[in-house]
Amino acid sequence: MSFYNNSTLAPGDQPDAQSIPHKYNVIASTHEGKKRYYNEDNFSINAIVGLEEGATSRSLRARGMGEPLMLSVFDGTGGEDVGAAASRLAAEYATWLYNSYVQTPSDRERLMNRYVSECNANILDKFYNYGGRRGATTFVTAIINNGKLYAYSLGDSRLYLYTGGSLYLVSNDHTVAMDKYRQGIYTREQAQNSADRHKLTAFLGIEPASAAHAEKYEAIHLMKGDSLVLCSDGLYGMLTDGEIADVLNSDVPDKACELIDLAVMRGGKDNVTCIVVECTE
Question: Do 73 and 60 form a contact (C-beta atoms < 8 A)?
């Protein structure tokens, strides 16, 4: 696994105007997998919520989308209806976030903080004890404007950047395993294989509410030909980074659907959600 930072590729100066993308192909897909009859995942594209109540799968495709773009993946926890309801609530709130951001792009940080705070409070209010179960959700969000990527996350849903023929992980997993890796207790391999990788340390629906803070990542200048992948752990838990990169480097038109199909074919042990963004022109 390679982690991205702005010195990874040693780009030197800012990208020239000819290289900066302003149009994007977006393919999103979610599937319940092979082991479950329900889907606790969800996604949003701008003001569109991926899964409505009771749905278990959906795919969306849009070519030549302009800026600003806001894309999110959510992975609900709590089981069946409660996890699905928590992720759907977060996706519905994301439509407010997008509409507010379009009006005042300069308020991006304040709006994201408000989104996390209010969404966390509402999930706690509605799903803290839902029939004896507790609902919560992870999220990862990518905002693209003026050719730049602004990313945020809580939990273990991931954002990858494919650029220059290599795949990089942009986001951090907020899990006990990765905390131990950062503390030097686990090696990277131990963190990836430990049962602690499933124990979340941050999510929407956390208590106390003051602990709800999305991690903000350094802004990245995108280039034409780059691709982004936002996904739940049901995808990267089934596929290697090399396999994800191979699909992104292929001529397959619906890369998100191809990735979902591969994850399901490998066993589909969890719900699987993926958004692929291609920086085209």
Answer: no
Fill in the DSSP letter of residue 152. Answer: E
Q: Write down the CATH superfamily of domain 21-279.
A: PPM-type phosphatase domain (3.60.40.10)
Q: Quote the pLDDT of residue 210.
A: 87
Gap between the Cα atoms of 214 and 118, Å rounded = 12
> How far does CA 94 lie from the centroid of its chain?
13
- Please report the pLDDT score of residue 10 as a whole number: 43
Nearest Cα to Cα of residue 91 among 56, 57, 50, 131: 50
**How many other β-carbons are positioned within 10 Å of the β-carbon of residue 14?**
10
pLDDT one-digit tens code per residue, 160-180: 999 999 999 999 999 999 999
For the chain, 281 residues long, the average pLDDT of each consecutive 10-residue run is 59 71 97 95 98 95 97 92 95 98 98 97 88 89 97 98 97 96 93 92 93 96 97 97 97 96 96 97 86
Q: Is 272 left (phi over 0), alpha (psi -120 to 50) or beta?
A: beta
Instruction: Identify which of 73, 16, 204 has the alpha carbon closest to the alpha carbon of residue 126.
Output: 204
Could you tell me which residues come within 8 angstroms of residue 198 by beta carbon, excluding any fewer than 6 positions away? 175
Helices and strands (H and E) in the chain: how many: 7, 13
How is the chain split into domains, by residue range?
21-279
d(CA 94, CA 117): 12
